Q: What sequence folds into this?
């Protein structure tokens, strides 16, 4: 499939002053979905999100048209997101895809956490994340596409099933599954949860801070504390473990921002529960990626080495199990 | 026992990497990963045997029986899954803590979670 040619043909429908598209190139990252950057000839910077040809179906991923619809719904409720410009039709020749505005900024956590360029926005990021999550969670349900609800017990059961399939024997994971099951909060009022709100999916501008929440592939109705806990997982603090919120700020700033944004009070213990479940999920994902090396499906040294990142999640889980005990 | 992957599997992955052409752009990234893998294997060669001996001794004391480390570790997993051992049992938690600390020293000695665990202990 010639993506560049298809985008050039689509250009007049993306902007009234455009006749063609240029500079189409695939961005790295994103195994399940392709992300392409391109420009229109009137200068508009855009992004194409598309499912690769012959992509295997994923039980957790939603159709891209749903993803586009919920980005629009979150935008209408005041969340910072890219503008969805066009949801592709079969006649566009791009497969399952949509086009959105390309925001300026940085997504790489290592740079956001350490680079001098982000010094001025870093101290406010945790509070801002809380405010933005409150906006996302308040998205009216009637404006959303059909999505499958998932609560704490549901997530635990799903990841325990995946862990059992890997046939690994990790006592820390066994302990975490049982302990988190005991502590699982009941979600009486499910809200729209982003599902992957962390460094890497947040566009940070050096002057304006958080300007866009990206990658809505895993969004679902669920417990609001899921998003607050996930951004606090130690694996995306990039060495800044004393700053739990993405290596940039404190729990209290996140919770204050959330309350001020209209999200209500969430106890820290509930955030830490989801943080622990987040470490457990990331650990199981590492085991899954190692499994693709062990079976020979992907024999690269990278897939082998990610298996040894399981021990980072075990360190974090031991710490959190001690804190929560 | 140190697995997922074992040192043998890691060496096989490295051998395969060393036989690859270095023409494409992904190679530079994989070369850094391969360097990390070699450093990890060197740490495991130094620390692995003691870590496993410690793990075996702790498991044996915790479960009250002898056996090789693989069998005992599996038994601990099964006991936790079945609920015959509690995840909050202090002896279980002490074992998980010691094992995690030994593992990270091999797998990722600069990982900041280790400092977090050591510093904030009550």
A:
């Amino acid at each position: 499939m010639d993506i560049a040619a298809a985008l050039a043909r689509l250009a007049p429908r993306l902007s009234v002053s455009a006749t063609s598209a240029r500079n189409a190139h695939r961005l790295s990252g994103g195994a399940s979905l392709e992300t392409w950057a391109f420009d229109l000839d009137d200068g508009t910077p855009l992004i194409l999100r598309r499912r690769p040809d012959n992509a295997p179906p994923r039980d957790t991923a939603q159709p891209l048209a749903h993803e586009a619809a919920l980005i629009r719904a979150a935008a209408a409720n005041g969340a910072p997101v890219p503008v969805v410009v066009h949801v592709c039709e079969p006649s566009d020749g791009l497969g399952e895809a949509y086009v959105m505005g390309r925001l300026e900024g940085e997504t790489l956590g290592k740079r956001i956490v350490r680079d001098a360029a982000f010094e001025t926005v870093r101290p406010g990021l945790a509070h801002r994340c809380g405010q933005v999550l409150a906006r996302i969670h308040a998205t009216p349900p009637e404006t959303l596409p059909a999505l499958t609800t998932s609560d704490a017990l549901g997530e635990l059961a799903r990841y325990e099933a995946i862990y059992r399939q890997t046939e690994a024997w990790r006592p820390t994971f066994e302990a975490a599954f049982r302990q988190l099951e005991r502590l699982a909060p009941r979600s009486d009022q499910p809200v729209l949860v982003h599902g992957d709100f962390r460094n890497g999916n947040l566009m940070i501008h050096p002057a304006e801070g958080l300007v866009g929440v990206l990658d809505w592939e895993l969004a679902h109705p669920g417990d609001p504390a899921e998003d607050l806990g996930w951004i606090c997982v130690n694996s995306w603090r990039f060495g800044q473990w004393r700053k739990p919120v993405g290596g940039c700020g404190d729990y209290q700033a996140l919770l204050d921002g959330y309350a001020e944004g209209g999200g209500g009070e969430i106890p820290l213990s509930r955030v830490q529960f989801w943080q622990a479940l987040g470490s457990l999920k990331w650990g199981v994902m590492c085991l899954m990626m190692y499994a693709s090396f062990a079976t020979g499906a992907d024999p690269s040294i990278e897939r082998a080495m990610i298996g040894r990142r399981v021990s980072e999640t075990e360190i974090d889980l031991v710490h959190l199990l001690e804190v929560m005990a | 026992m140190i697995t997922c992957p074992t040192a043998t599997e890691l060496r096989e992955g490295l051998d395969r990497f060393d036989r690859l052409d270095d023409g494409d752009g992904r190679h530079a990234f994989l070369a850094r990963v391969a360097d990390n893998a070699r450093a990890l294997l060197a740490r495991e060669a130094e620390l692995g045997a003691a870590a496993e001996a410690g793990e075996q001794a702790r498991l044996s004391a915790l479960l009250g029986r002898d056996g090789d480390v693989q069998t005992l570790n599996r038994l601990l997993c099964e006991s936790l899954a079945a609920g015959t051992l509690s995840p909050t049992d202090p002896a279980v938690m002490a074992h998980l803590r010691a094992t995690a600390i030994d593992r990270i020293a091999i797998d990722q000695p600069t990982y900041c979670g280790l400092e977090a665990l050591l510093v904030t202990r009550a």
Observations:
- Chain B touches chain A through 49 residues (CB under 8 Å).
- The mean pLDDT of chain B is 91.
- Residues 7-121 of chain B form one domain.
